Amino acid sequence: MTSAAYTRRSVSGSRASRSTAQSQQHLSLAEQFKKIFRHPGILALCVLLGALLGGLASILQTPTYVSTAKVVVNPLVADPNAEATTQMKVEIDTEASVAGSYQVSEAAAQKIDPSDPDLANSINQNLEVIPHSGASILDFKASADSAEKAADYANESANAYLTVRQDALKKQVDSNVQGIQAQIDAIEGESAAKTALQEKLGQVKSTSTAPGRVITEGNVPSAASGLDTWKMVLVGTVAGALIGAVIAAIVDSKSRKVKYFDRANDVAGQDVYPIRGSHEVEDTRRFVLSLGEASNTPGSTARLPNAVIYSPTPGAASKFTEIFASAQDDSNIHFTDSLRVKPGSGAILEAAQQTIIATPQDSEVSDVLRAAKSFGLCIVAVTAETSVHELREFAHAAESVRVNTEYVFLDN
Predict the structure, then answer these.
(1) How far apart are alpha carbons 142 and 219 in whole angstroms?
(2) Is the pLDDT of residue 370 over 80?
(3) How far apart are CA 253 and CA 262, in angstroms?
(4) From the CA atom positions of the chain, what is the Rg in Å?
(5) Pairing of strands 333-336, 354-358
(6) 211-249 per-position pLDDT tens digit
(7) Residues with Cβ < 8 Å from 393, sequence gap 6 or more?
(8) Looking at residues 189-208, what average pLDDT do you find?
């Protein structure tokens, strides 16, 4: 059988279908997890460190307590004679800005501890005023390193806001009273205009200056907000597992040895056929069938074409040659380790005899490729101990000289 007898099927044939099926398998989630769990030590160490760091962070972190007071805001009616539509509306977003101002925080600080010059700034930084959309209600949400402080910050800020707002309303009413009184004093004698102004003055003096009221006081929180120790440990464990998975994936991809079947696919740049240790003979027969070189005689064994068996790993080429010999119940096969044998050589072989060269370990890659090009096929045996660098180098060399190459992974 000459090299011409081996016709490599096109990429669109069975090889392509095998590539598609195996690529999908290699890229599956299960396979990705398989790569990660090849390094259980890395995963366990990262998970343990993550859990310890989470627990340590929970112990060392400053507890934060949160308390919330609620205030309903009354509209400011400084002039009862003005249009009701403009007086009865509360701009709640504007009021939220006023409530969160430093002026309000300073007033609250004076109530809590007048001797602390930094307290107003601390309250202002730890207070969040939240307006309710569609309602005249403000939430005074205060946080502090103690439960009592949080409640004091929330309640005193709410009261301080109402005080500041009431003072502003009183000033506005007093200003209106003074303005009306000045108009009255400017009119001599009695007149209808003076009488109208006097009535207006009475109404303005009776204006309510209630700015609103606290509808819910901030309670002293019973526990700190945020995550407790066990939740922090859980978060640390999950984070450690994710980091460990990334590290394990990197370590797995950077290994100098092939080690695993799926990595052999990646390094070779094409499909690698698995030869399982417990089914090596059957898998080899299937491998031969996958090349499309089966005999047309019913019941006969599938046969390889003339081929060169090579491996960059010591002993792998001879090992696969032995497996192949066991899988082929055909005495019309000539095995040799000489790269100088040519297919169909009449001096050595009968014309119909098949030639398989098991390359010696010290063979040069150029000699292997020259013989494989003459024979038409090179079978590369890969094992877990095969060097990634050597396998990749051979794959590139074979591709550059257009040698038909098939790869098998000996999983022993």
Answers:
(1) 11
(2) yes
(3) 11
(4) 44
(5) parallel
(6) 889 999 999 988 887 767 888 899 999 999 999 999 988
(7) 365
(8) 78
Find tokens 């417990």 and name the residue: 278
| 337 touches 387 (CB < 8 A) | no
pTM comes to: 0.51
What is the tens place of the pLDDT at every residue in 114-133?
Answer: 999 999 999 999 999 999 98
207 CB burial (10 A radius; 0-12, 13-18, 19+): middle
Q: Is the pLDDT of residue 298 over 70?
A: no
Whole-angstrom distance, CA of residue 12 vs CA of residue 66: 67
* DSSP per-residue codes, 257-307: B--SHHHHHHHHTS-EEEEEGGGHHHHHHHHHHHTT---SSTTPPP---SE
**Among candidates 102, 222, 230, 119, which has minimal Cα distance to 160?**
102
Calpha distance 221→219 (Å, rounded):
6
Q: How far apart are CA 286 and CA 5, in angstroms?
A: 19
**Residue 220 — left, alpha, or beta (φ > 0 → left; ψ -120 to 50 → alpha)?**
beta
For residue 248, which of 38, 31, 63 has the smallest C-alpha distance? 38
Rounded Cα distance between 191 and 369, Å, is 123
> Which string of DSSP letters, residue by residue, matches 188-215?
-S--HHHHHHHHHHHHHHT-----EEEE
**Tokens 């696969």, located at residue:** 320
How do strand 307-310 and strand 354-358 relate by DSSP bridges? parallel
> Sorting pLDDT into bands at 50, 70 and 90, what band is 193?
confident
SS (H, E, C) 127-140: EEEEECCCCCEEEE
